[in-house]
Amino acid sequence: MDLSIAKSWKPIVAKEFEATYFQDLDSFVKAEYRQFTCYPKSSAIFAAFDYCSFNDLKVVVIGQDPYHGVGQANGLCFSVNENIAVPPSLQNIFKEIEADLGKTSPENGNLERWARQGVLLLNATLTVRAHEAGSHQKKGWETFTDTVISQISKNKENVVFLLWGGFAKKKAKLIDDKKHTILTSGHPSPLSANRGYWFGNKHFSKTNDFLKSKKLQPIDW
């Protein structure tokens, strides 16, 4: 796998690349990409870090797996490439933004514009085999991304962590809530959202209110 990661993140993750678990993960991912169709494309595996520098980081959104459909995953959680239909979870995210902030939904689901403003869109697992959800889980990615979350908590202040759904909420134990703000709700997937666990969480206005209270530029969602 291409282990070139954005310069600002190298002090945070360089030791991980040298760890035995990551060497095993690297071998696994390379073999998977050789034998099967996998997503995202190899050059986009670390896209979340490429678009959001460590220095500019203000918000962390934690997802679980990349999308496993053709052409969907672009290395940012919940985000899809511009020519791809907006998935249901992302549709519900946009609906909540519209209800919360009065912003109409964008024409596409590419969230690079969020990432460039300091939103780290981090999946716990950074790769997946096509059409096989969860196929690259428990191979080492979670160890890597848990370390990233812990290092952000340790080395930054006043970051907003958005934990949506049961899986993401478990990451709260990695975060110092005395230094950072943690907002939790149900997952934006239709199953959760339609049961009343997502809509109305106002996470987008709450995030911006917090950032403004710390004299930080709010996010243009």
Walk me through this protein's architecture.
Keywords: Cytoplasm, DNA damage, DNA repair, Glycosidase, Hydrolase. Belongs to the uracil-DNA glycosylase (UDG) superfamily. UNG family. Its main location: cytoplasm. InterPro entries: UDG_fam1, Ura-DNA_Glyclase_AS, Uracil-DNA_glycosylase-like, Uracil-DNA_glycosylase-like_sf. By secondary structure, this protein is an alpha/beta fold. The protein is built from nine helices and six strands. Helix 7 links the parallel strand 5 and strand 6. The longest helix is centred in the N-terminal third of the chain and has 16 residues, at 20-35.
Please supply descriptive tags for the structure shown above.
221 residues; alpha/beta; Uracil-DNA Glycosylase, subunit E; two-stranded antiparallel ribbon; 11% strand; globular; hydrolase
Helix content: 25-40%
* CATH domain class: Alpha Beta
Helix count from the secondary structure assignment? 9
Which strand order spans the largest sheet, edge to edge or round the barrel?
A: 3-2-5-6
| N-C termini distance | 32 Å
Strand content: 5-15%
User: Mean pLDDT score, rounded?
Assistant: 96
Stated plainly, the CATH topology is called Uracil-DNA Glycosylase, subunit E
Question: Major sheet, described briefly?
Answer: 4 strands, parallel
User: How many beta-strand runs?
Assistant: 6
The CATH level-2 architecture is identified as 3-Layer(aba) Sandwich
Give the count of structural domains: 1
Structural class: alpha/beta
| Gross morphology | globular
Model regions low in confidence, pLDDT < 50 over at least 5 residues: none
Series of H and E elements: HHEHEHHEEHEHEHH
Considering the protein shown, what is the CATH homologous superfamily? Uracil-DNA glycosylase-like domain
Q: Cα-atom Rg, whole angstroms?
A: 17 Å
Domain Uracil-DNA glycosylase-like: 49-211
Catalytic activity: Hydrolyzes single-stranded DNA or mismatched double-stranded DNA and polynucleotides, releasing free uracil
InterPro entries: UDG_fam1 (IPR002043), Ura-DNA_Glyclase_AS (IPR018085), Uracil-DNA_glycosylase-like (IPR005122), Uracil-DNA_glycosylase-like_sf (IPR036895)
Protein name: Uracil-DNA glycosylase
